[in-house]
Amino acid sequence: MSDADTTVIVGAGIAGVHAAESLRKEGYQGRIVLLDSDSQMPYDRPPLSKEWITGEMDEANILLRDPETYERLDIDLKLGVEVTAIDPVRKTIDTKDGSSYAWDKLMLATGSKLRTLSIEGDDLQGIFYLRQMADAIAMKQHMQHVKEAVIIGAGFIGAELASSLKQLGIDVTIVERSAYPMENVVGRRVSEYFLDLHRSNGVDVITNDSVTQFNGDAMVEEAVTAGGRRIPCQAVIIGVGVTPNTEVSHPQIHIDGGYTVNEYGETSVPDIYAAGDCTSWPYNGIPVHVEHWDHAVNHAKTVAKNILQPQSAPYTYTPYFWSDQHGSRFQYFGHAKEWAQTVLRGSIEANAFTYFYLDEQHIVKAAFICNQPKNALPARRMIQQQKAVDPEALADESMALKKVQRSLA
């Protein structure tokens, strides 16, 4: 690429910022334009449900980079800009304010958007979705006067928020429509562990039920469920998941569970790339979509290399995410929609264990780790090696997990 080239990145979240920064670190001398519809300086979203809400992190510390970094790297950061159209022939994008940007390479790093619910009374004050900094600021201010809160959805965001609000001394009720939250991700046994963890920490978790109505005058005062429960509350947080944000698009860009990209981050249109939460990408030959901080960073860095040197760096990442709840650290490696066998190493009762998900050939597809960080590296390597393991050895704590992993090499 020549020094006169322009790379435009749509989305200044985790993936977009790391892609822009990586382009410079890899030696790109052309112009970099980083666009985002949010008017806030680019910030880190995961802490919004944890350190930000509890006051352990302030607005300055939550920024992905300080403003001077964009100037030093000569990144043209434009905030409050909404992209309305892509023209892959003219190689331009248009924005809502009437501006047009020419590009030689275009990266879509648009992240994800919230799933929303339509519930009677959801226009009352005190009902929140948590996605952007503005949501977090409004929620944090409101929570100063809250004694009871309801969280709809027991996924990882809802669970983290429950832990954070309990830390602030707020009585929390989670309402989850399924019988076992996150069972499709972690399985029944670990799901039961999560239920016990929250209940033992004073969180009232209601399963097999859903909120159908909010009551109150101007402010929410009560949530009513389909099962007839009436839950007093002065705040409600709705966390029922996200979907890939693919609104910035063109008919020629293939979308299926996100922008469909190959192992180099290329979309179906030449010179248009995509990275992060908004994509569907090949993992072990199967298209997957994950919404993890670690994936967004590593995918963006890899795609940046391929923008500079096309098809030079295939993406060979093992999915990983973590969550902090009630003083425990959870880590998950791999990606398993289904499994033939599970193996427990450690003790669920002692709150220190690693739970492995194996296929029919005894190959480790994923691992869930609770308060055993030393198991992270060998577990990740087992997943990467894709070789059969002895389930008995995997469960035997007298044998170091590193030794089990090395025996596969």
From TrEMBL:
Q: State its cofactor.
A: FAD
Supply the InterPro entries for this chain: FAD-oxidoreductase/Apoptosis, FAD/NAD-bd_sf, FAD/NAD-binding_dom, FAD/NAD-linked_Rdtase_dimer_sf, Reductase_C
> Molecular function (GO) terms listed?
oxidoreductase activity, acting on NAD(P)H
**Superkingdom of origin:** Bacteria
Q: Which residues form the FAD/NAD(P)-binding domain?
A: 7-300
Task: Cite the Reductase C-terminal domain residue spans from the record.
Answer: 320-404
Keyword terms: FAD, Flavoprotein, Oxidoreductase
Q: Does the record carry Oxidoreductase as a key word?
A: yes
Q: Does the keyword Flavoprotein apply?
A: yes
Q: Provide a GO CC annotation, any one.
A: cytoplasm
Q: What is this protein called?
A: Oxidoreductase
Per the UniProt entry, what species is this protein from, by scientific name? Lentibacillus cibarius
- Origin organism lineage: Bacteria, Bacillati, Bacillota, Bacilli, Bacillales
